[in-house]
Amino acid sequence: MTLSKKMINAQMMDCNADLFRCPVCLSEMTMVDKSRLVCMTNHSFDLSKNGYVNLAPQAHVTKYDQSLFEARKTVMTSGFFDGVLEALVSTVETHAHAVILDAGCGEGSHLSTIVERLTGDVTGVGIDLSKEGITAAAKEYPGLIWSVADLANCPFQNDKFDAILNVLSPANYGEFTRLLKPGGLFVKAVPESGYLKELRAIFYEDKGQKDDADPVARVAEHFDAVSTERVTYTFPLAEGLLAPLIQMTPLTWGASADKIEEALQMAISEITIDFTIISGVNREGTGQCLVE
Ligand SMILES: C[S@@+](CC[C@H](N)C(=O)[O-])C[C@H]1O[C@@H](n2cnc3c(N)ncnc32)[C@H](O)[C@@H]1O
Ligand SMILES: [Zn+2]
């Protein structure tokens, strides 16, 4: 008998229910009937029909909608992001990586690829505040744990994760140090000035996606043994990829229809990918660190 995607995801969640803590009262959670997570004081969260659980205290409408995530998936799985993924995999595989959290995972393709490429038995957990992103992830990549959740108020117990990934997403260092085991690895991918520079040239904007001016210094405030790797390359844009590329990026938010049409007419043949991968090791005894 073939298991439904929901059942596959529910089984993963059931086996790893000890990771969770109630987003309302912070107590432990168990899985009941492979269909809901329930805490010690009876707050109950049903699995969706695709097998993710919504643990965000309230509904959030974000600009990251279904069409953006479809475009993101098309671009991200075209090979465009392979150089960054390779760097992430080789950074993570030097460390223990049995349980990995992707904080701000979007449509889930990075986490799925990374878990696939890592050696050993790896449990991947992806959270994002966007319900559309997590719905896409749970549908497309069964066998991982997917949850709508706020990375500033993570619904997980202290000291449970061997590694946390944070790719193109905001960070919450109080939460990340709380969740990581002592010695666990934090890995952040931040865009540099060359990232999508061909699009920036058209949209004349400098909407960097960094959540702070000096992310290396920020990581070093919270983690030991910080190291960085710059990953820069150009990717040939196959026909049909420019439209989803324009659609997937916050760079074009607010651009007029005319501007987008103008960009679509440009014969951009290759696009630049430029990231710094920052990693750091969690200190001992940081489990009670306050959320910033
Ligand atoms: C630029 S996207 C990156 C998504 C994915 N990591 C990728 O590289 O394709 C930023 C993501 O951060 C998510 N995000 C923003 N604030 C968040 C929060 N407080 N908690 C969880 N996710 C958040 C957004 O919903 C969005 O999916
Ligand atoms: Zn509770």
How would you characterize the overall build of this protein?
The protein has 292 residues and is an alpha/beta fold. The protein is built from 10 helices and 11 strands. Strands 4-7-6-5-8-9-11-10 form an 8-stranded mixed beta sheet, with helices on both faces. A hairpin with a 3-residue loop joins β1 and β2. α2 packs across α9 and α3 crosses α4. The longest helix is centred in the N-terminal third of the chain and has 15 residues. It is globular, with a radius of gyration of 19 Å. The chain starts with a helix and ends in a 10-residue tail after the last strand. The C terminus is likely disordered. The structure holds S-adenosylmethionine (SAM) and zinc ion.
Task: Furnish the topology, listing elements before pairings.
Blueprint (H helix, E strand, L loop, with lengths): L4 H11 L13 E4 L3 E4 L4 E3 L6 E2 L11 H15 L1 H11 L6 E5 L5 H9 L5 E6 L2 H10 L4 E4 L12 E7 L5 H7 E12 L5 H7 L11 H8 E14 L5 H7 L8 H9 L4 E13 L10
Parallel strand pairs: 4-7, 5-6, 5-8, 6-7, 8-9
Antiparallel strand pairs: 1-2, 2-3, 9-11, 10-11
The site of S-adenosylmethionine has 21 residues, from α2 and β6.
